[in-house]
């Protein structure tokens, strides 16, 4: 791994099941993550993904690329445009810095309405 390396994009279909399952798995019972009518009452066109699901998908993106020995040391993300059912999020990444067996990767996830997530992940990849 070298600074400037680009990770291949990962396309993730955003399904209603993914959104609801992620919310349930992370014990986030906010109605905007599972009830379309209540989400609309609160101004959203539909349910939307929670940050913990997004965080998990960002982690998966990194470990899928760097392999089963990869250890996530730090994940720092910020949400933007929501992920709604029927869209696709495309994750991309660029290695910003390498120090021995540890890399810092800039990650961006975009969907049909804009940038859903931006952040950095520090990953250690033991030899």
UniProtKB/TrEMBL annotation:
Residue span, MaoC-like domain: 10-107
SUPFAM superfamilies reported in the protein's UniProt record: Thioesterase/thiol ester dehydrase-isomerase
CDD domains: SAV4209 (cd03455)
Gene3D superfamilies membership: Hotdog Thioesterase
Xref: Pfam families: MaoC_dehydratas
InterPro entries linked to this entry: HotDog_dom_sf (IPR029069), MaoC-like_dom (IPR002539)
Family the entry assigns: Belongs to the enoyl-CoA hydratase/isomerase family.
Protein name, UniProt field: MaoC family dehydratase
Species, as recorded: Streptomyces olindensis
């Amino acid at each position: 791994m070298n600074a400037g390396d680009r990770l291949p994009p990962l396309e993730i279909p955003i399904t209603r099941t993914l959104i609801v399952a992620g919310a349930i798995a992370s014990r986030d019972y906010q109605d905007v993550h599972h009830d379309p009518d209540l989400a609309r009452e609160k101004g959203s066109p539909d349910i939307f993904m929670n940050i913990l699901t997004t965080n998990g998908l960002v982690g998966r993106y990194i470990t899928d690329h760097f392999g089963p020995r990869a250890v996530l040391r730090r994940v720092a993300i910020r949400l933007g445009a929501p992920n709604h059912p029927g869209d696709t999020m495309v994750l991309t990444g660029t290695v910003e810095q390498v120090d021995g067996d540890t890399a810092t990767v800039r990650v961006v996830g975009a969907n049909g309405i804009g940038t859903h997530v931006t952040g950095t992940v520090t990953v250690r990849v033991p030899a």
